[in-house]
Specification:
α3 packs across α4. The chain has one domain: Maf protein, CATH 3.90.950. A hairpin with a 7-residue loop joins β5 and β6. Strands 1, 2, 3, 4, 5, 6 and 7 form a seven-stranded mixed β-sheet that branches. It has six helices and seven strands. The chain has 211 residues and is α/β, with parallel strands linked by helices.
Length: 211
């Protein structure tokens, strides 16, 4: 990471315990710490899925930013939306099977909200991305086999596209990384607009003369 004189890059905190999100931040060269945020995820939420994930992401970012005012904090939240119904994380085997069965052979939407808060009291900036995903038709044995991997249990909609869940997917329209839990193109634009310097950030802040 580069720094200009008198312009120290702030700490970057991911307010999420998701291993997929920390992996994606690492992929784009953003050094970060992980401090999960514990917030109310049930009350005062708008009905629209995009507004809902954006608000939850902002709650998480603001919670950790209040504890670490010197840091730039990223909050994120993901949900799966099928025919007017929000599919969260399954509570067990039967619910996971039921979710995957509902998704089989149909299109659904994956919404991920992201929010950047701080440093030093800078107001939060929040947004969301939506990606359409179509599952191929599945028989019950395939569904049971997938759920038996235990991959679905910590994921909205009961599947992970980056793992065994890739075998369930027939088509994706939009940002693939959004389905993993972090819309990278949108996040990069927000980091750039906030002036955050990282190895693949705006070239005007890079010191290498060959650029």
């Amino acid at each position: 990471m580069t720094e200009e004189p008198g312009n120290k890059t702030p700490r970057f905190i991911l307010a999420s315990a998701s291993p997929r999100r920390t992996d994606l931040l690492t992929r784009i060269g953003v050094p970060h710490e992980v401090i999960p945020a514990d917030v109310d995820e049930t009350s005062g939420l708008p009905e629209a899925p995009g507004a809902q994930v954006a608000l939850l992401a902002e709650r998480k970012a603001r919670r950790i930013a209040a504890l670490h005012p010197e840091a730039l904090v990223l909050g994120a939240d993901t949900l799966v939306y099928l025919e007017g119904t929000i599919l969260g994380k399954p509570s067990g085997i039967e619910e996971a099977c039921a979710m995957v069965e509902r998704l089989a052979g149909t299109w659904h939407e994956v919404y991920t909200g992201i929010s950047l808060a701080g440093p030093e009291g800078r107001p939060a900036e929040s947004s969301f991305e939506v990606t359409r995903v179509r599952f191929r038709p599945l028989v019950r044995k395939q569904i049971r086999l997938y759920v038996s991997t235990e991959e679905p249990f910590d994921k909205a909609g009961a599947y992970g596209i980056q793992g065994y869940g890739a075998t369930l997917v027939e088509s994706v329209e939009g940002c693939y990384f959004n389905v993993m839990g972090l819309p990278l193109a949108r996040l990069i634009k927000m980091l750039d607009s906030r002036g955050y310097d990282y190895p693949f950030g705006p070239l005007v802040r890079r010191k290498e003369s060959w650029l």
